[in-house]
Every structure is written in structure tokens, then in C-alpha cells.
DNA sequence: ATTAGCACTCGACAGTGACGAGTGCTAACA
DNA sequence: TGTTAGCACTCGTCACTGTCGAGTGCTAAT
């Protein structure tokens, strides 16, 4: 038995209808709503074949049929061939919305993840870049009060991280620049992830230049190093989690609760995203997901890059019965918009 | 008919039982679970009186009774007299948890609101201080690249705000301090909320010192002023919103959805908190709330201060059937812990 | 190969009666 | 006079039942 043209037509019609309604679809519905030119009886025979082939299941004997994960997979693969390059008409629009005037990366992510969930009506999330691979370019100390200091860590990619801290005794303002320079010199070129392992030797080296500084700063060095090495934590943004409450398949509070608990846990989201490969766009349907809590969900993910290197991922989680074509094109457009904005606002110094 | 001692005892027993179970409580239950030394029949008579007095209602004829808002109000007022000063045994503990090593106010709020919802199991939130009343102490420009600058606004209370921006042409590094000084001098002493109204005259004044600077910075001045005046936006932190999914009264997804939609909207939360007065601790029960969506909820709020001046509020929203004594003492302890941390880490310069 | 017809299946839904938790009333009692 | 046992009454819950209808599979006719 093979998937002839008519079977494909019927299968697509069933999937389309089920995506719309979340209700098991019967032969009559198909023959009425979609003009296939055949009677319900014929459709019934075809549906029976499709069930045998594993594309459909019946929830119970007298009900219509619903698509299986296999059906969605077929549907998506087919979609894929056609909309390989969906007309990203809204790309400019998207970029304008998520472009944050304040130039803060943080806001870009917050905006993006919000837009993503508003457009798709599903749960969406963004894994922010891990900074551990980033290289330190410069350190700048800024006095706030005579005992309170702001330490700015300027990375090669021009992202700025900061640590605030207090000293037990005041540092004269006029030594700030000297100390900043000393710190910059010693830390220049190191990756954030390296700091932790070499901090002891760094502290010792810095200790030898303490004529510039004073003892209270020296006391704080271990603490500062700790803070710096902590900056590499994985950061996951999410939004639209409670959208699933609007879906009929989550009418049951217990089921909704289970889903929400899963996606509210940033570390499980981060792990989830680690599994999906490094493809520009990946789709994982139902049982293809590793996690039990997402057995009835599909996951559409994309990557975003900085100078051609993958630095983070974005994704949308919805029911397997999701509007794939809309979600796929939204995710794709969003990843492209983020690429543009990030690469435009956080250039490496490629002049050097 | 008056609230004699026995009626009070029975009322409290009923409230306690209902807080525990969320199930209408009958005379038998009371006489069994709480040792009052009287028979169910007697309790029935008393309950009938309590109903007439408006403290109890029957959901339907053959059910037990449940407390009204009036009952909770009585209960809370009574509680109030006794636990005016609950032993804040966990204050130190709390302070340790929410004290953020990084000295970031943002993290303090994030930690606090998380702890608040974890302790109470209800939705909790914090209205962050509005900075519009804060006075500018100093401006510091920090170069990131030759065209990208970080503008640090250091406020009198030692909170630091930042704006990142790009210039169309490079500024020499060695002019940074001069420009910073000029900006500091002109903006010193202004409140953030004033900037917007006087920015035109400020720009003009700064224009006259442009010998220190260059034209591209001048072009950006209006933009900078806009950014600065935008810093005053109200910021609301919230956490534990989805905890209500665990409550039996929100077993209905539609009802849960309604509640969640309300509290996810930060602006409605902010408005809600504006209504409650400036008391150190305020309790608003059921119909006492302004908003329809909170008609079945109680709201416990407290304030936190900086140098004795109210700067923000914290709160917990739960069902009217909440464990008031626990929530009240948690909210109270939390507000005290926040007071301590904020006043300790963000001192005004009281030496001047 | 397609389709009309028909018997069959099974979930949804409304109606029914037993059950039980809880009440209010009354009469007896301390 | 306050308390309590007893009892009739109310009403929601639950299990059960029968009807309805959507949908199927099979068969025979086209």
C-alpha cells in the first residue's frame, strides 16, 4: 500500500481540520469541508488504509480519527520542501519591534521572546549566549561612593558586564584609572571560563602590583574573581507559558500544571535545547521529544549567530496539533531578525 | 444577638477548618475535630445565629457552611491584636537569603519576590522604587568602543542606572572625563522626573560648553535626555503566579486563566497597589478589593522604606481562604528584611 | 473503482433513584 | 433556661440507564 495522491490529499485535509478544531475528524466532515469530489464512503476506505499505515488513530470506535506523530512528521517534511524560503515579509517589521533603542542585549531578548509568544500564541523561549567563551578586553572601575565601586568588564564583543562591591576602607578616586589599567592588563585576553581556573595565579600577580592599590582592594580580589567566573551562567528567557491554558487539550488543570512546571524550570528548558542539534531550524514532534512532559508537544527551534558562530537558540513549544507553517516561519524570521540586530549592535572589532 | 465567647470559638473553628480543607464545614465536623464540649445540635443553633449575623453562608441547603468575607475580616482583626509583633525568628535567615552578594538592587527584588511566593505558596509581587524622585549625583561616561559609550547615572542614593548608545563619529577617549564632568555639573541636583521638563534648556546650556566636546555628542543629547527621563518607569516584579493552579478553588481552567491574566499584567498590579494605603501592613479581603478578578482573593501588602521614606510595596495575593497568620508574618518579615538590606546597601551620603 | 445503504459501536447526555451529609425543628431533659 | 437527642427534610453526588447521534465497516449495486 502506498501513499497515492488522493491519500495525501485526505491526510492533509484531516491534519488541517484537526489543527483547527482539536476534534477527531470523520469522513463526512472531510468530504463536506474540503472539495475532493469523492463520497464519504470512499474517504472512509482511504482513512482505514491511512490508519493501517500508521498515520491516523481512532480515539474510540465511534469517533473520527486524529493524526499521529508520524502524520505530523510527514506533513512537516512536506511543508518543508515547499516553504524552504518563506517570504519574510515581516522581517523588517520584526526587527523594528525587537530592536531596543537602549542597545541593551537584555532588552532585545525580552522583546524577542515576548513577540515570539504573542505571534504564535504558544510558549516561547530564548537561550541567551553563554559568555564563558567571551574574551575580556578591558576592565574599568567606576567609583560610586568612596567605599562602593562598580567594576565594568568590557568583553571583546563589546558586551559589558558589571559587578558592584563594597570596600572596607576608601580608595582614593585618583587611583581608579591606575587600578583599572592594572586589572585590564592582567585580565586582557582571557576567556571568562578560564578565570576560575587561573584566578589564584592572577591574584598573586596582581598582588605584586599593589603599590598602585591598597590592601582592601587586594582582600576583595578573590571575591571579584568569583563574581566574574559566575557571569557565565546560562540564562533562559521565556514567555507565554500560560498560553496553554487557552488550548482545549489542556483543559485539565493537572495536565496544565505539569506542563507549566516543566517549562517554568529554566534548567530543564536549557537541557531540552541542548538536545536539539545545531541546525538552523529543527522540529521535534511528540514522542521525538526526550521529555515525558512534552510527549504531546512539538518543539520548533532555531539558532542565532554572532559573526557566523552559533551563540544561542530560540524556540516555541506548542501542542503537536500546532499551526506548523505559521510557527516555523515566525521562528525563522525571528532568528534572522535577531542575527541582524546582534551582529549590527555588538560587532567584534574587526578592524584589528 | 451578640458574639459571645462560644460563638467566637465556633466561628474560629469553622474558619480554621475551611482554610485547611476548602470544604464546607458542618456541625458534626466541628464538634469532633475541635473539643468544645457541646453537641452538634448546639453548634447547629449557634451556626444558624452566625449565619443570621452575616458571618457564614450555606452554599446550598444540605451543605455545611463557609465563612464570609465578614468572618475573615473579624478573624484577621482578632489575629491582629494578638500577633501585633510576631516573633520574627526567621528574619536573619530571610535577610541572608535575599541579600544579594552582587549588591544589585534588581537581584534583591528578584530574590525577595521568589522567596515570598515560595514561603506562602501564593502569588507575590514587589513594586520597585520609582526613581523619579531620585536626585542625580554624578554622570560618568565610559567608552566601550570608539563609537559606543556607556552613560552611568549615579543617583544620590547610590543607585546606578545606565544607558548605552552609539555615536556616528568617534570621541577621543581623553575627553571622556571632561565631558563627564560637564554633564555632571549641569545635571547635578536634578530629580529624574524633572529632566523631561527642563531638557530643552539643559541642552542649550550644554551646547554652550561644546568646546569640551564635539558635535556628534551634541546631536545625541536629546536622545540621552529622553532615555534618562524614561528611567522612571514603574517596575513590578512578580512570582508564583501559577501557584493558584494547585488550589481547589481554581480547578476550573477558565477561572484560573482569568486570575492569571489579571496578575500577569504588571500595570494592573501597579494600580492595585496604589489603592492600598501607605500603612506598614494592609489587608484587603474579598469584596474589599477594587478589582472583579480578585473578588475571591485576599491581598496582604506591606511597604518598604529608604531613610524612613516609603519607596515601594510588596504583597501577596491568595484566596480569601488563606493562612492569614502565616502570610501576614511572612510579608511583615520580608518587608523588614528588605528595609534592612536596602538601607544598609544604598545609604544616602549622610555625612554631607 | 466508487458509492449508497445499513447494521453496529460507543461516547455524550439527560433522567432516575439510592445514599449520605447536613440542617432545622421539636420535645425532653438538667 | 440552655442543651441535646431524635427525626423529617433538603439537596448534591454518584452510579446506572436509555436515548441520540456521529462515525465506522461491510456488502451489494453501479
Furnish the topology, listing elements before pairings.
The structure is a homodimer of 352-residue chains.
Chain A: H1 5-21, H2 27-33, H3 40-52, E1 56-57, E2 66-67, H4 69-82, H5 91-98, H6 105-120, E3 123-127, E4 136-143, E5 148-155, E6 160-166, H7 176-187, H8 192-207, H9 215-230, E7 236-239, H10 253-264, H11 266-275, E8 281-285, E9 297-306, E10 309-319, H12 324-345
Antiparallel strand pairs in A: 1-2, 3-7, 3-10, 4-5, 5-6, 8-9, 9-10
Helix pairs in contact in A: 1-3, 2-3, 5-12, 6-12, 7-8, 8-9
Chain A binds a DNA duplex (30 and 30 nucleotides) through residues 24, 26-28, 38-42, 44-45, 47-48, 58-65.
Keywords:
homodimer, 352 residues, alpha+beta, Arc Repressor Mutant, subunit A, Beta-Lactamase, Enolase-like, domain 1, 3 domains, 5-stranded antiparallel beta sheet, 3-stranded antiparallel beta sheet, DNA-binding
Characterize the structure shown.
The structure is a homodimer of 352-residue chains. Chain A has 352 residues and is α+β, with helices and mostly antiparallel strands. The first copy, chain A, has three domains: 63 residues, Winged helix-like DNA-binding domain superfamily/Winged helix DNA-binding domain (Arc Repressor Mutant, subunit A, Orthogonal Bundle); 152 residues, 2-Layer Sandwich (Beta-Lactamase), CATH 3.30.450.40; 99 residues, Enolase-like, domain 1 (2-Layer Sandwich). Chain A contains twelve helices and ten strands. In chain A, strand 5 and strand 6 form a beta hairpin. In chain A, helix 2 crosses helix 3, helix 5 crosses helix 12 and helix 8 runs antiparallel to helix 9. The longest helix of chain A is centred in the last third of the chain and has 22 residues. Chain A is elongated and about 90 Å long. At the A-B interface, strand 5, strand 6 and helix 10 of A face strand 5, strand 6 and helix 10 of B. Chain A binds a DNA duplex (30 and 30 nucleotides) through helix 3.
